Amino acid sequence: MISIDNYDFKGKRAIIRVDFNVPLNEKGEVTDDTRIRAAMPTVKKVLAGGGSVILMSHMGRPKKNPDPKYSLEQIVPAVEKNLGVKVEFAGDCIGEKAAEMAKALKPGQVMLLENLRFYAEEEGKPRGLAEDATKEEKDAAKKALKEGPQKEFVQKLASYADCYINDAFGTAHRKHASTYLIAKKFPNDKMFGYLMEKEVKAISSLMEAPAHPFCAIIGGSKVSSKIGVIKALIEKVDSIVIGGGMTYTFAAAQGGKVGDSICEPDMFSVALEILELAKKKGVELVMSPDALVADAFSEDANTKEAPANDIPDGWEGLDIGSKGKKLFRDHILSCKTILWNGPVGVFEIDKFATGSKEVALAIAEATKKGAYSLIGGGDSVACINKFGLADQVSYISTGGGALLEYIEFGDLPGVAAIRE
């Protein structure tokens, strides 16, 4: 496999898939440029090697083309500021102007294509179908899109460049035109960018050769969204700390009372299956015995502590309680490898962020004592940043869904497409 470090970029145009899906304020200004900064080493490497760069990314979920709210033109100042080089904006991603600009690029120059998702071809999802369209009609529309327009879309993007670099780990779990299909157009000239390379190495080492005890902390509101990853982790870890709204589905499945807490009754059988599977594999499932409960989902709510399996009606669990904090902290400090995905409470509201903060502090302390810690998923990363502890953990992954799918399936389409 080609490495970005030994590829000769001199006189070549590199098309780089980056993840510039960044938050904007009402003025269209970037409020957090973390993802832009993360891509800069790769872009600078190409430019330093005598090449030119075509940047492509998605932003948000636009339903029309064009949609000014999701235009990447808004991020040009932030990219220029971080890169220190003028960035030309194409105004489209597959129009004549984009093709002409790419062709005219000289070494050291950079251009940015418009939002890839302005085109249905990027995701391979047909638009404009009737709301009552049958499955057969949807499948036929998807097939027609992939067999015609999507192939042309990929061909046009590929025609701009001499080599392809994927540096967007956050979208590597999708078989999209710019992350998967385009790689096939560059059989001998495709590679990972530095960010993607780091992500793949960090997650591979975590899953292939972790130091034990290995603990995964899985939070979030729903069991349904984490079933696959929990089952996959049971095969790898020594323990799983379960937090967040999922706790109450597990509690209720075992006959507990959870009041008005978030709960998925249709997942009771799955929760019991997970408990049985963990027991069979000798994996400890750690759950908070108590909860901080509130009489409303609000900063102004009345709160008290209650057993996690005996919450009164009219009250809902929004964070772990005092016993849970101590239990989670002691458990985390006993581990040598720690994976954290998902907060253990409603951390966006300060009153219900203390459990997640305790988890973050314990991970930082364990890391200081020699443990390897990997934080992944948007909310967990937001947590670690909120508490100012980002520099006190081993690695922070830029991928949420991508990280979980990598753990669950052992590979990702965007990663496999480069390795093929």
Automatic annotation (TrEMBL):
<keyword id="KW-0808">Transferase</keyword>
<dbReference type="GO" id="GO:0004618">
    <property type="term" value="F:phosphoglycerate kinase activity"/>
</dbReference>
<keyword id="KW-0067">ATP-binding</keyword>
<feature type="binding site">
    <location>
        <position position="317"/>
    </location>
    <ligand>
        <name>ATP</name>
    </ligand>
</feature>
<feature type="binding site">
    <location>
        <position position="226"/>
    </location>
    <ligand>
        <name>ATP</name>
    </ligand>
</feature>
<feature type="binding site">
    <location>
        <position position="35"/>
    </location>
    <ligand>
        <name>substrate</name>
    </ligand>
</feature>
<feature type="binding site">
    <location>
        <position position="348"/>
    </location>
    <ligand>
        <name>ATP</name>
    </ligand>
</feature>
<keyword id="KW-0547">Nucleotide-binding</keyword>
<keyword id="KW-0324">Glycolysis</keyword>
<dbReference type="InterPro" id="IPR036043">
    <property type="entry name" value="Phosphoglycerate_kinase_sf"/>
</dbReference>
<comment type="subunit">
    <text>Monomer.</text>
</comment>
<keyword id="KW-0418">Kinase</keyword>
<comment type="pathway">
    <text>Carbohydrate degradation; glycolysis; pyruvate from D-glyceraldehyde 3-phosphate: step 2/5.</text>
</comment>
<feature type="binding site">
    <location>
        <position position="117"/>
    </location>
    <ligand>
        <name>substrate</name>
    </ligand>
</feature>
<feature type="binding site">
    <location>
        <begin position="58"/>
        <end position="61"/>
    </location>
    <ligand>
        <name>substrate</name>
    </ligand>
</feature>
<dbReference type="Pfam" id="PF00162">
    <property type="entry name" value="PGK"/>
</dbReference>
<feature type="binding site">
    <location>
        <begin position="377"/>
        <end position="380"/>
    </location>
    <ligand>
        <name>ATP</name>
    </ligand>
</feature>
<keyword id="KW-0963">Cytoplasm</keyword>
<dbReference type="InterPro" id="IPR001576">
    <property type="entry name" value="Phosphoglycerate_kinase"/>
</dbReference>
<protein>
    <recommendedName>
        <fullName>Phosphoglycerate kinase</fullName>
        <ecNumber>2.7.2.3</ecNumber>
    </recommendedName>
</protein>
<feature type="binding site">
    <location>
        <begin position="19"/>
        <end position="21"/>
    </location>
    <ligand>
        <name>substrate</name>
    </ligand>
</feature>
<dbReference type="InterPro" id="IPR015824">
    <property type="entry name" value="Phosphoglycerate_kinase_N"/>
</dbReference>
<feature type="binding site">
    <location>
        <position position="174"/>
    </location>
    <ligand>
        <name>substrate</name>
    </ligand>
</feature>
<comment type="similarity">
    <text>Belongs to the phosphoglycerate kinase family.</text>
</comment>
